[in-house]
Amino acid sequence: GDLTGYAGYKWLSMNYLLVNEKELTQVRMATNDGDVVEKNWANVPLQRNYRTNILGNILTSSVDFNIVIEPAFTDDLEPEVTSVATVADLETAIANATKPTVIEVEPGTYTFSQIKVPSGKNITLVETASTRSAQGVTFDGQFFVTGELYLDGVTINNANATSEGISKSKDNAIYVQGQGKVVVTNSTFNITKATGITSWWSTGNSDEQTEIIVKNCVFNANGHRPIQAEAHLTVENCTFNDQYRYCAQLTCSDAVINFKNNTIVNGENGKAFVYGIQLEGADYGCNDCVINGSGNTIVDGGADSTMYYCECGKVVHETIEWNVETTPVHEN
Q1: Model-level pTM?
Q2: In degrees, to the nearest 5, what angle opens at C-alpha 185 toward C-alphas 207 and 148?
Q3: Is the CB of residue 219 less than 8 Å from the CB of residue 197?
Q4: Residues with Cβ < 8 Å from 82, sequence gap 6 or more?
Q5: Least enclosed by CB within 10 Å: which of 163, 200, 318, 322?
């Protein structure tokens, strides 16, 4: 039916949520009319006893929408919006953010060694609205995240990443630790060294709640590692090209892993076989994890390829719950 007070808009969906007095959340909507179409909105403000409306051409456009809270939303949770055109401007905008901030980035390539998103910061990076169409923004360096970082519709390279640190954090495109959270949607990774996204030697347990969410992305791995995670991890509707071996290697404790509807394409620079998920067992291991998987495909993987592989060793098998489409292969 019609949406009262907003001429020309029709209801598509609605829901009731129990929320804190005021908070921000990520909203996901999936529609199915022959093909499944998924839409995601980051930093949507909610307020108890109020109604949040997401308005716009939300079925046909990823950028034409507005968010309105009725009767009024006057708290400082409403995201700040700012624009940048240089690396210096970007660093300043992050440093000056005192509440959730959407940074609209002018098209171009932004080259840096490392940009930090500290604890307490909530940053969304998107291309400026007037040109937001075909990934005209490229970041080449490392994002070091202990706060919250949302990236949508961009290209992410790590050729220029020269950050200091232990081997597991150095030179990755995105490194997240502590209570950090990274959400990447509709983006392309070009990995030329190290790893695309890493939370290795952080934690995914209840004390820290490190979280990585990746949806509708392409990883061009060039023989390198797409994801190494000690975190809660969601990977959905992604394509992995020419990875070293696995899409995601896990060293998790008390974590939930969702790996769904991904395509894995073996290439010439990695191993002769590929895995979707690998549980590391030689040095660190995994325990108390729930692994959910469905709808994944391996292309040209070779005889030794498998979607789920457990390295055993220090993995505590009896605490791992597998809810997956194919039987995991165990090293021993």
Answers
A1: 0.78
A2: 35
A3: no
A4: 93, 101, 102, 103, 104
A5: 318
Please, what is the Cα angle at 51 between 46 and 54, to 5 degrees? 80
In whole angstroms, give the CA distance from residue 89 to residue 72: 32
pLDDT given for residue 205 in this prediction: 46
| DSSP-based three-state secondary structure for 220 | strand
pLDDT in tens, 128-157: 877 676 679 999 999 999 999 999 999 999
Is 293 within 8 Å of 324 (Cβ atoms)?
yes
In angstroms, rounded to a whole number, what is the distance separating the alpha carbons of residues 284 and 293?
Answer: 23
Cα–Cα distances in angstroms (integers) from residue 319 to residues 139, 197, 291, in the given order: 39, 26, 11
The pairs formed by 25-34 with CB atoms below 8 angstroms and a separation of 24 or more are 26/183, 26/213, 27/54, 29/58, 31/59
Q: Which residue matches tokens 């490194």?
A: 175
Please say whether the beta carbons of 290 and 319 come within 8 A: no
- The letter for the amino acid at 54 is I
* 41-77 residues labelled b (16+ CB within 10 A) or e (exposed): bbbbbbbeeeebbbeeebeeebeeeebebeeebeeeb
Note whether 203 and 212 are within 8 A (CB): no
Residues 6+ apart with CB under 8 A from 125: 90, 103, 105, 137, 139, 149, 150, 151, 152, 154
